[in-house]
Amino acid sequence: xxxxxxxxxxxxxxxxxxxxxxxxxxxxxxxxxxxxxxxxxxxxxxxxxxxxxxxxxxxxxxxxxxxxxxxx
Length: 72
Description:
By secondary structure, the chain is of the alpha+beta class. It has four helices and three strands. The protein has a single domain, classed as Arc Repressor Mutant, subunit A (Orthogonal Bundle). The chain is 53% helix and 15% strand. Strands 1-3-2 form a three-stranded antiparallel beta sheet. The longest helix is centred in the C-terminal third of the chain and has 11 residues, at 61-71. The termini are far apart. The model has no long low-confidence stretch (mean pLDDT 85).
């Protein structure tokens, strides 16, 4: 429970699920790219790690942070 609170505190205003995942729109915003770019990256197998749940794709915050750190 504390970990979830810390994640939300670190990223105020972001829509983060209870277990630290962002939806596609929030992930694109976090990365500073367009939603279409993120969709293309998923289709091409590029970009940050993601998880498909039903018909929705989510991105663990740890994966997004690692992706950004690797791009620098």
